[in-house]
Design goal:
Distance between the termini: 26 Å
Structural class: alpha+beta
Shape: globular
Oligomer: single chain
Order of helices and strands: EHHHEEEHEHEE
Strand order of the largest sheet: 1-2-3-4-5-7-6
Number of strands: 7
Largest sheet: 7 strands, mixed
Length: 164
């Protein structure tokens, strides 16, 4: 399998990420947080304008291409406390093939290259499949975090981290 990561920088690439979001988020997150919160978060946190704004402020987005077909996306940013893995998503049909591990490995390598020893992320407490996947990759739960994101919605997450 030919896995390639394409750094997002053009409007066309942002649109490709948005198409992945529109396929991945409703299917994966509706059973966990409900349709209303999924729609709210997609509109506010995963809009084209928000993705462009994040990239402009230093967040790096990548499209995962498998044999020439977009299969997922990820994003990370350097923070004072370590490398923050802010997004890591794989299309349903491509899960359980090691693609999440492939993307996480890339981010861990990027952290090592610049001397960062900690990669951390947030994952919804009820996102059991993702928690198990991160644990298999060596991430451990280090904190709990609740955040009011407006619209009557709350993100109820674990913070997980891995030393690299």
């Amino acid at each position: 399998m030919d896995n390639t990561l394409i750094e997002v920088g053009t409007d066309g690439e942002v649109r490709r990420v948005k198409m992945l979001i529109e396929k991945i988020w409703p299917d994966h997150y509706t059973p966990i947080i409900g349709r209303a919160q999924v729609e709210y978060m997609m509109a506010g946190y995963q809009s084209d304008a928000e993705i462009k704004s994040q990239i402009a402020s230093g967040c790096r987005y990548y499209i995962l291409s498998c044999n020439g077909v977009d299969a997922g996306y990820m994003a990370y940013e350097v923070k004072p406390e370590g490398m923050y893995l802010s997004k890591l998503y794989v299309m349903e049909r491509e899960r359980r093939k090691g693609l999440g591990r492939f993307m996480a490995g890339f981010i861990e390598d990027e952290a090592r290259k610049i001397g960062i020893k900690r990669v951390f992320l947030r994952v919804n407490k009820f996102n059991i499949s993702s928690i198990k996947a991160y644990e298999k990759m060596g991430y451990i739960k280090t904190a709990e975090m609740k955040e009011d994101i407006g619209g009557g919605f709350v993100m109820d997450d674990y913070v997980m981290e891995k030393r690299v």
